[in-house]
Amino acid sequence: MKTVKVALRSQDGFQPVTSSHYPLSENAATHGGALPDEPLLDSYSQAVVSAAEEVSPSVVNIEARQTASSHRRSSERGGSGSGFIITPDGFILTNSHVVHRADRIEVVLADGRRPDAHLVGDDPDTDLAIIRIYAPNLKPVRMGDSADLRVGQLAIAIGNPYGFQCTVTAGVISALGRSFRARSGRLIDNIIQTDAALNPGNSGGPLVNSRGEIIGVNTAVILPAQGICFAIAVNTAKHVAGWLIKDGKIRRSYIGVAGQDVKLHRRSVRHHNLPVESGVLVLSIEPDSPAQVGGLREGDVVVEFSGHPVASIDALHKLLTGAQVGVRSRLVVIRRSEKLELDIVPEESLPQGN
Question: Model pTM?
Fold first, then answer.
């Protein structure tokens, strides 16, 4: 057995570590003290390395620019984020907040290419967007199934935090089925919570399992907390991406009310045999909206829509899908002490911020 003295570099040069000597095997000594990497990688490291090598070529850096004008001055502001290639013909999935209302989008591939890029569509309600590039030899990712996820399994995040391209962090899935409120105000369900470190610039990048399959789209981190990060489940992303590629938008319906969640009096719940103990108190109604046309009034409490109980604003939002646009539906409300049924025809909701 041979020994080797270990030295650390300082600003003045090499400073020897004289307190100990580390034994090397005869095999290592004959190779100049270097050990082959493979035997040093445990199964955890091998899984992270393999997943990173599989997915990193598909991860892109996104620079979004928006021109703002005020009086006689115009200025350009922007931000950066991440995305990943989902089809061989150049469709890229990212976060809506990365590219929303951008005048110019620049994409940098992992190999340094900068192909032309344009926004196909975005959906602020799920914080997802699709952009497209035109370039040969693109490598798409493999999509996983978020329904198969389990708390505690390996989760690997890849992105471009602060512009550091293809940065890899790893952790576990901390929780499933979280809810996260989008900037539009709607609630996003089935959010994945992970402790894989995310930073500004990771938004829109992939969350990956040990097989290199996409399980989520990294979207947010709670500051100043450590290790509380969130990703949109890949099953949600696949559904939204399909519609954005096809139509450039997600169709949703609206009825034109602003409200708040309220508890119902127990006597009213029993008297009217209501399926819920809370509802949506109508605070205001938009002029000429479906709600006004249908006879809804301020002070009404919505408890049912199209045969489904409504216990909260979020529950009502979930029911106002694109399939309800133009369809006459029954709205059940409590007005003072009466239970009323109103006919209402939801209209298509316009995208936020347009």
Answer: 0.77
